[in-house]
Specification:
5 strands, alpha/beta, 200 residues, Rossmann fold, 5-stranded parallel sheet
């Protein structure tokens, strides 16, 4: 799907950053989407959630449970696309153990700062957080055995670019565990141009 030329992509990215910076900086606020540890628990997140510091869990903003697609193996290299405050990355870091590694990427500086703080609080030395956009990943080909993502790809207009990058950075036979929002019917041209519909 080509990017809608009438959509101001830079404005969209700016609004998404603002929305998720608010989730990071003011997690007690009510958003139009559910957030927080209680929401992750409602989604039946794995037991590792209990070890995730509140600094990360309070800003969890996933849409579903990618862990229902399976657990990670010890030693795997994992990319968390749109890692936010780090809840999924920190769960993954526990699953892959000291021989594995998790890299979370996000474009929101406030979320990355929160994720790094939570990782330090948890003592997770096998996880790193990188500022990046999904359409141009700063990693070599075949860098990861697994990509996880929760409620992020739906926010990106150029999905073809995102999936091309994911397949590029996955090892042959690697897997993707995505929880996201999908639609059943085409969105009108007016709807595609409405930044508010993209950000919430």
């Amino acid at each position: 799907m080509a990017v809608d030329l009438e959509l101001d992509v830079e404005l969209l990215k700016s609004e998404i950053k603002k929305t998720y910076a608010s989730v990071s900086e003011q997690p007690e606020t009510e958003f139009i989407f559910p957030t927080g540890r209680a929401w992750a628990e409602d989604l039946d997140y794995p037991a590792e959630l209990a070890n995730v510091p509140e600094a990360a869990a309070e800003s969890f903003a996933g849409v579903a449970n990618p862990w229902q697609l399976g657990r990670l193996a010890q030693g795997e290299r994992v990319l968390d696309l749109g890692s936010g405050a780090g809840t999924d990355s920190l769960i993954a870091s526990q699953m892959v153990g000291s021989q594995g590694h998790v890299t979370g990427i996000d474009m929101t500086a406030a979320m990355l700062a929160k994720a790094r703080t939570a990782a330090a609080e948890m003592g997770a030395t096998n996880v790193a957080f990188v500022e990046s956009e999904a359409e141009q990943l700063p990693f070599s080909d075949a860098s990861f055995e697994v990509v996880i993502s929760n409620g992020v790809i739906d926010l990106i207009p150029d999905k073809e670019a995102v999936f091309a990058e994911l397949f590029r950075v996955l090892t042959p036979g690697g897997r993707i565990q995505i929880a996201d929002v999908t639609i059943q019917n085409p969105v009108s041209a007016e709807g595609r141009r409405n930044v508010d519909l993209w950000t919430g």
